Amino acid sequence: MTKKELAQRAGITAVHLTRLESGSASEPAPETVAAIAAALDFPRAFFHGEECNELTPEAVSFRSLSTLSARQRDAALAAGAIAFEIHDWIASRFTLPQPQLLDLRHEDPLAAADAMRSHWGIGTKPIAHMIKLLEAKGVRVFALAEQHKNVDAFSCWHGEIPFIFLNTFKSAERSRFDAAHELGHLGLHVHGGNAGRDVEREADIFASAFLVHRGDLISHIGRVKSLDQLVIAKKRWGVSVAALARTAFNSGLLSDWHYRDLCRHMSMLGYRTNEPNGIAREKSVLWRMVFGELWKEGITRENVAKALSIPVGEVEALIGELIAEDHAAIPRQRPQLSVV
């Protein structure tokens, strides 16, 4: 909502709302707070709580920032601030995995990807589950709600804790790449402060190298002969066929002419929007474990929302899409979780 829309719904003037927001007005009357709370569908107690840790655009690494309106950007930042509240409430009750990221600000993207793989003991092997890996290494992963679907993904630091927010309305392959891209930002461009095409290109190079190790690619593909070969092979690394083609080209397995021809072929077949041979969407293990433990204590998502004085829909939007319903896929490397 714009300020004008909110003021109309709450039955107050836009000038009065601006003064309330800036703090230049006197303490609002109880009926004014009630009207604003009703218009926003937030509990009244939220407006009497402690200040939220608000995110600033300078502290965040956004993908496709040039295509975002200020309204879309600010809405995503506000969702991030609420995610901090949820996280801090959970962290006060559980011992969550500690961050194990490297400061890679002085590395080039390819060397940075190798350094992170080595630091995490991955070697050259494919990454079976990106979200599980990130959570095991101390990264907090949240989802972006439908109203933020124009935001590809973003990342930031909250104190010493790294956060990644993923668009769950994309293909599973694209979401994995976004996660690796944001991991690149967290290591290469610590605490934001950088923007532009060069920064995004660095994060893309990092993501490609992190998801598909060049040595593993060469040993399992060799020279690329056809698009069908890539469609079959991409499942090994869990990337899109377009991303695999680009990585193969960067690794010298495709000529410039052949790569361009494959790109035209992919566009003609609609592979840019409908991923062939798709994989299952990744889910969170950490949040499933946390809410499973809370459930044993009789604490539901509604209880968490009430404790934080936020609508339960905010909890659902940030975590609900990431909690797996099936219990078959138990991660090989579980995040270490203990009750405080």
Protein topology:
Elements: H1 3-10, H2 14-22, H3 30-40, E1 61-62, H4 70-91, E2 94-95, H5 109-119, H6 130-136, E3 140-144, E4 153-158, E5 161-167, H7 172-188, H8 197-211, H9 214-220, H10 227-237, H11 241-250, H12 256-269, H13 286-296, H14 301-308, H15 312-319, E6 338-339
Parallel strand pairs: 3-5
Antiparallel strand pairs: 1-4, 2-6, 4-5
Helix pairs in contact: 1-2, 1-3, 5-8, 7-8, 11-12, 14-15
Biggest sheet character: 4 strands, mixed
Number of helices: 15
Number of domains: 2
Radius of gyration: 22 Å
Name the average pLDDT: 88
Shape: elongated
Strand content: 5-15%
Quaternary state of the chains: single chain
- Reading the helices and strands in chain order gives HHHEHEHHEEEHHHHHHHHHE
Distance between the termini: 40 Å
Strand order of the largest sheet: 1-4-5-3
In helices, the fraction of residues equals: 40-55%
Residue runs with pLDDT of under 50 for 5 or more positions = 326-334
Q: State the total count of DSSP E strands.
A: 6
The helix/strand class is alpha+beta
Structure description:
With 340 residues, this protein is of the alpha+beta class. The chain has two domains: 1-49, 434 Repressor (Amino-terminal Domain), CATH 1.10.260; 52-216 and 282-340, no CATH class. The chain has helices spanning 3-10, 14-22, 30-40, 70-91, 109-119, 130-136, 172-188, 197-211, 214-220, 227-237, 241-250, 256-269, 286-296, 301-308, 312-319; strands spanning 61-62, 94-95, 140-144, 153-158, 161-167, 338-339. It has a four-stranded mixed β-sheet with strand order 1-4-5-3, sandwiched between helices. A two-stranded antiparallel sheet has the order 2-6. Helix 14 (301-308) crosses helix 15 (312-319). The longest helix has 22 residues, at 70-91. The chain is elongated. The model is unreliable at 326-334 (pLDDT under 50).
